[in-house]
Structure formats: C-alpha cells, structure tokens
Amino acid sequence: MKNRVTSLFEIELPIIQGGMVWCSGWKLASAVSNNGGLGLLGAGSMYPEVLREHIQKMKIATDKPFGVNVPLLYPDIEKLMEIIISEGVKIIFTSAGNPTTWTQKLKEEGLIVVHVVSSAKFAIKAANAGVDAIVAEGFEAGGHNGREETTTMCLIPIVKEAIQIPLIAAGGIGSGNSMAAAFALGAEGVQIGSRFAASKESSAHDLYKKAIIASKEGDTALTLKSITPVRLLKNSFYQQVLLAEERGATKEELISLLGKRRAKAGIFEGELEEGELEVGQISAAISKLESVEEIILDIKDTFRTCIHQLTSLTI
Amino acid sequence: MKNRVTSLFEIELPIIQGGMVWCSGWKLASAVSNNGGLGLLGAGSMYPEVLREHIQKMKIATDKPFGVNVPLLYPDIEKLMEIIISEGVKIIFTSAGNPTTWTQKLKEEGLIVVHVVSSAKFAIKAANAGVDAIVAEGFEAGGHNGREETTTMCLIPIVKEAIQIPLIAAGGIGSGNSMAAAFALGAEGVQIGSRFAASKESSAHDLYKKAIIASKEGDTALTLKSITPVRLLKNSFYQQVLLAEERGATKEELISLLGKRRAKAGIFEGELEEGELEVGQISAAISKLESVEEIILDIKDTFRTCIHQLTSLTI
Q1: Which of A148, A170, A289, B86 has its CA 20 to 30 A from that of B152?
Q2: Could you report the per-residue pLDDT of B74-84, keeping only the tens digit for each?
Q3: Residue B247: its pLDDT value, please?
C-alpha cells in the first residue's frame, strides 16, 4: 500500500507494532519489520544499555526500517536518547510526556518523530512541536491510557479533523476488519499492540500470552485512574486496587500498592495474579498463539476481504 | 442499500434512530422514517397514553415503517405493550431488561423484535430468545450503558462472531465514515443517537441541543457505575456524583442523589447544571443544529465518499 504512512517510514504495510513494555524486544520488532510492517523496540522496560543491545541485534536481524518507542517520562531519558541517536536509529515513537522537549533535537539529528496521544488537544500540541505523524490511541487500548476515555471510534475522526499530518490509529485494532474501520475513520495506518504481545516472537512470558488468549469480553479494565490510568487484565492485583479505592485509599497508598515491578512480574515473569497484565480490550478477540508472519498474513487477508465487501455497498 | 437490515424493516437506508428518552417523539421519528431510515419512538420517557398519542401521530406523519423503543424495566410495562400491540406497531426495540420475558409474546403478535445489548453474552441470550436482530452498543454511547465497558470497535467483531442474525452497531456513530467503519467491523446497520438528539426535530430542549453542539472531547463521562452506568455531559450534577462517590456514598445515597426526574430536567427542560444530560462521546464531533434531512444527506454523502476512498486501497 502506498500512502503517507508507508512513504514516511519506507515500509510496505501501514501496520505498526506497538512498542510494548516486556514484549517488544528485537525478536518481535524484527519479525514485524521483516514481514513488511514497522517493528518498534519498547524502550520503556529496558535499561539504556539493554536498549543498545536490542538495537544492535535489530540491525543484524533485519535490513528493513524499524523504530524505538520511548516513554518521555523514562527516568534516564538523556542517556536513552544518546544511545538512540548514536546507534543511528531512524524512527522514534514518543509517548507519555511532553513532545516539545525532545522533538526538535531529534529532528535535527535526522530522526522521524511520531508522538502518541489520546486526544485532539495533545495531537495539535505534538503537531505544533513538529512531529511527523501522530498515533491516536483510544480508551480500549492496553497499558497507559488517556484520562478523557475517548474511544478509537470517536477519537480518530476528531483528531483527523484537528491535524494535517498522517494519523495512525491505535486501540481495539487486531484484524484486517478493524484496520479497514480505522481507515474509514480517517487513519492512514494502524498500531497494533495486544495481538503482537501474544505472538510467538513476543518476549512476554508464555503464561501472559495464554492469559490473553483465554480472556473474554469484560476481562480487562482501565484502573488506577487517580495515578496513571492503565488497562490490564482483571486479576488479584486489580481486585486489590479496587478494594483500596473503595476504602478511599490516597494516591500515595495506591502508588505504594502498585510498587515498582508489577508490569515485569506480570508480563515478563508470568505472575498472573500479582502482576500487572497490561493488555487491550481486543484481547477478547485473540484466540490463538501465532507467529508474526501468520498474524500479518491474516490481517492482510481479512483487510482485503473486508475492503472487497465494502466496495459492493451502495447507498 | 439492500441487506438483511433494510429487508427486515423494509427501509431504504440501514440507519436507525435511537429511541432516546425526551428526544424521540413522533416529530423526530417520523422525519427519520420519511428520509429513508427507521425512526423509533422512545417510550422510556412516555406515560402509556402519551405513547399511544405519539404512535397515532406517527401514523399520520409517515406511511413508512417505524418502531418503538421500550426499556424492559419500564414500570407499567404490561400496559405499554398492550398499547404497542393494539395500535398495530410492527417493530419494537427492547433494551435494559431480559429479552426472554417478552420476545415470544411480541413475535406471536407479529412484531419484529430487536434487542439492545452491550456484550456478546447478552447477544447470544437475546438470539436464543428469538429476536430478529441485535443492536450492540459500545461504551462510547450516550445514556445507559454496559458494565463491561467494551467499545464499539471491540464489541462489534466479538458479537458478530457470536450470532448469526443481523447486527446493528451503536455507540460513537454519527457520520458516514463511522457508519462505514461499523460495516467494516461486521454490522449491517447503524443506530445513531446523539446526532439525532441534537437535530431540529428532536423534542429535547434547545439548551440541551446547544450543549451537545458546544461539547468537546472529554466532556462526557460514564458515571453512576454502582447503580446503572450512564454516559452524560459533565455538569454540576456529575460533579456532585463524583464528590459523593469520593466520600464513599452508598448505593442508596446515590439513588437518592439521582432522584426521579433528572433526565427530564436536563434533556427536556434544559436545566444544564442540575439535569442529567445523557449523550454519547460523539457529541464532540457534532457542530451544528441540523434537520434530520440534512443529517441523513450528510451521512449518505460521507458514506459514499468513504467507501469510494476505501475501494482504492490495496494491500
């Protein structure tokens, strides 16, 4: 497909794999890039030197474009950016922070910069900061999430109306049908998280992948809204948060309950009850363990069939 | 358009106007039916004899198919159903209650029965009860809403997978683009609420319509989750609910705070601060007061353009 998103990244398919903590190492990202999409390393769960190692392995594993996702609230951000620049990474997706702080610096270094937002307000701010494209992520997305709770169906048209630069939709997308829906709403690309999190190449723990595959509708919730809203699979940890909130726990108490390594425990170590199992609502539609190649083939097939069916509609 | 939804209702366009409390009287519903869609009278805010009057006016105002939406928790439901049957209504949309109670009786009387759900679980239950079609309504929809918080983008494919009967998508739909998106996800029709609530023919108060038109992203919230989740515009009443919840109010206290006539006050009488202003997230994309004819023309135009653009996509 030729559009502004595939041209910007010089990729074949406008399918971006979300840079997810504890899932998106070089194995997952290189598989996505090698299959025509854009693989992203998830720096959020990597020490700077670990990221360097993953970038170096990526360069061996693929000669296709790839990128790094960086949460701008990362503690040692200067060091991380220094590695990204010195290793010659060409594409960066920033999230969870102010896009004005880094965008110009990264652009001067020749990087393509994309910022992830959950509202038109922040999309405009990011566009004004000079980013090359926007990822707009709806309420149904896994992991950290916006306070406005705007769903992908409502968010994409509103953001599209607000900005001129290319728009990538995220949240609730896991098939060619939802990719076609995102394009109908005005997106020129999609970012897919949960389905790749549960793929063979994901670095997540097998038990976490199995939990995604087993999950049904209503099994995720957006929680910890008073700290930083995060969507996760409901488990014992989630119930503890609910109970704490019901008894009127303060922000500090919730931060202390969350602790330091819940996401690693849940996603990387497979602690299904006490860990933080970040995943999107679309996990309910994910029903098997597949390779990235199988996932991308299925998305292409279902997208083609869907577009073909839509073509016959007259009104 | 010819599909299972237009055939079932014998209508021209697979566009259903939601049967909304205090908005959907005979003026709105007849305008929608006369413009090729399916108009629904919203019985939820009508005394039985008021509904009878609206049905009789509908029969004068249109010779096209129309229906009635009935929340099954309606207190005087026997009387209401008796009127619907004796007045010869052909189509009923039931919501907020158990579809097994009334579906067979209504079918025996020759009515087409559609049930509104927010999950695949209840879609299957309604299909087993014998309904002719399902409306699946996502988290972004206005008014009463499901506990699972599944968004339209995730809900439609999951429900589609679960049932064989025709599926109508609701929640976040207000344009031809979102209608095309709903079709991409597997729907064969759309139910549109907020955009018609703010139309000239809606019986809602002008101030309520103006509030919808003025609203921006993040201006609605799903609230009163411990009683019955409802999406409304954030106002003073909403803030009072938040404060009550923060101080740990019981269910009974919240029911008492809600009181008896908040929705009427907000929607019908234009009490913007103390009323309950039920509306969906898509209100942020509604920017002017239009007639039903203008709305339906715009939906047709944007749908056609959208399908045409999608047709050119190859992958």
Answers
A1: A289
A2: 999 999 999 99
A3: 86
Do B237 and B138 fall within a single domain? no
Instruction: State in Å, rounded, how far the first CA of chain A is from the last one.
Output: 27
Q: What is residue B93's three-state secondary structure?
A: strand
**Is A224 found in the same domain as A121?**
no
A183 inside 8 A of chain B by CB? yes
Which residues 134-153 of chain B have a CB within 8 Å of chain A? 138-140, 147-153
What per-residue confidence (pLDDT) applies to A75? Answer: 94
Whether B104 and B220 share a structural domain: no
Q: Is the ipTM of this complex over 0.95?
A: yes
Shared domain for A189 and A82, answered yes or no, is: yes
Nearest to B94 by CA among B143, B56, B134, B140: B134
Range of the domain at A220: 216-282
Token code pair at residue B19? 């049967």
Token pair, residue B147, equals 């506990």
Query: Residue B59 contacts by C-beta under 8 Å, 6 or more apart in sequence?
Result: none
* Chain A to chain B Cβ contacts (< 8 Å): 171
Interface membership of B182 toward A (CB under 8 Å): yes
Q: pTM surpassing 0.90?
A: yes
Band the pLDDT of B150: cuts 50, 70, 90: very high
Q: Say how far apart CA A308 and CA A105 lie, in whole Å.
A: 44
Kindly determine whether residue B177 and residue A185, on different chains, have CB atoms separated by under 8 Å.
Answer: yes
